[in-house]
Specification:
By secondary structure, the protein is mainly beta. The chain has one helix and eleven strands, in the order E-E-E-E-E-E-E-E-E-H-E-E. The strands form two sheets. Strands 2, 4, 5, 6, 9, 10 and 11 form a seven-stranded mixed beta sheet that branches.
Length: 134
């Protein structure tokens, strides 16, 4: 899967941003078993899970600390996954990456622990920088 992330920028605390991740793959291959995830990496820190969504059934998964403030969604027709980020804080400053994982089974067989592990994702976008100033 080829991934292109966009939508990052510099904002003030309390503002909102929506990131987009456009996905594409070879003709004839579908996203029926694909889960798309968002991760973020602040300077000097590890890459942390933000959210994930299943293309097939729309099941969503979040890291607890961001649930309610961040929302992941998808547009099947556009092959694009979004991350709506509200009430942004300086601690949200990071490079945000989208990633794709083709599951062997339906997403219901997996849990948050699986989707939060960046090692389970096969393909990664280039990242988009979000900077939140106070």
């Amino acid at each position: 899967v080829q991934l292109q992330a966009s939508g990052g920028g510099s904002v003030q605390a309390g503002d909102s941003l929506r990131l987009a991740c456009a996905a594409s793959r070879a003709p004839g291959r579908t996203f029926s078993r694909t889960v798309m995830g968002w991760f973020r990496q602040a300077p000097g820190k590890e890459r942390d899970f933000v959210a994930a969504i299943s293309w097939r059934d729309g099941n969503t998964y979040y890291t607890d600390s961001l649930k309610g403030r961040f929302t992941i969604s998808k547009d099947n027709a556009a092959n694009t996954v979004y991350l709506q980020m509200n009430s942004l804080k300086p601690d949200d400053t990071a490079v945000y990456y989208c990633a794709a994982d083709d599951l062997r089974r339906g997403s219901a067989y997996y849990d948050n622990e699986y989707f939060s592990n960046p090692g389970n994702y096969d393909d990664w976008g280039q990242g988009t920088l979000v900077t939140v100033s106070s």
